[in-house]
Design brief:
This protein is of the alpha+beta class. It has 2 domains: about 1-80, Beta-grasp domain (Ubiquitin-like (UB roll)), CATH 3.10.20.30; about 85-150, Orthogonal Bundle (DNA polymerase, domain 1), CATH 1.10.150.120. Helix content is about 30%, strand content about 15%. It is built from 5 helices and 5 strands, in the order E-E-H-E-E-E-H-H-H-H. The protein has a 5-stranded mixed β-sheet, with helices on both faces. Helix 2 packs across helix 5.
Length: about 160
């Protein structure tokens, strides 16, 4: 059975016809063509597929696309505005929080949602806030540094 959905992704409206059981990650990647959202585990445990749904971080691989109708969806492609990276994106780059990059889009979106909810988290709160996003490369040290710096209005290490 097919359904027609009206979705708002990164501020743009899309009308898509997809199977009723289509997952949000499938619609974002395969129908809309935004490939920054990664498919990792397909079980909602690695965080690679994280997007923001009305500002909250969700795993798009375990969410039916129909559940996103009428909500604001933000992918990594939607964070930059007018050609300028979001401060969290800048911080991840400048603090070396990116290695292979596979987890990075989901990690950045989770981090943004964390700071939107708690603008001045402790290191422990940051670590707890990102524990649903797995990174196999970095050991999280630079990621935590980038998030904490961003929470203090910094996007680069002190020289």
């Amino acid at each position: 059975m097919q359904v027609t959905l009206d979705l708002t992704v990164n501020g743009e409206d899309y009308r898509v016809t997809v199977p009723a059981k289509a997952l949000l990650v499938e619609v974002i990647r395969d129908v809309i063509g935004l490939t920054g959202t990664k498919r990792g585990c397909d079980e909602g445990v690695c965080g690679s597929c994280t997007v923001l749904l009305d500002g909250k971080a969700v795993c798009s691989c375990s969410l039916l696309a129909i559940r996103a109708q009428g909500k604001q969806i933000t992918t990594i492609e939607g964070l930059a505005k007018d050609g300028k990276l979001h401060p969290m994106q800048e911080a991840f780059i400048n603090f070396g929080a990116i290695q292979c990059g596979y987890c990075t889009p989901g990690m950045i979106l989770t981090s943004k949602a964390l700071l939107d909810e708690n603008p001045k988290p402790t290191e422990r709160q940051v670590r707890e806030g990102i524990m649903g996003n797995l990174c196999r490369c970095t050991g999280y040290v630079k990621i935590v540094e980038a998030i904490l710096a961003c929470s203090q209005g910094k996007v680069a290490p002190d020289a």
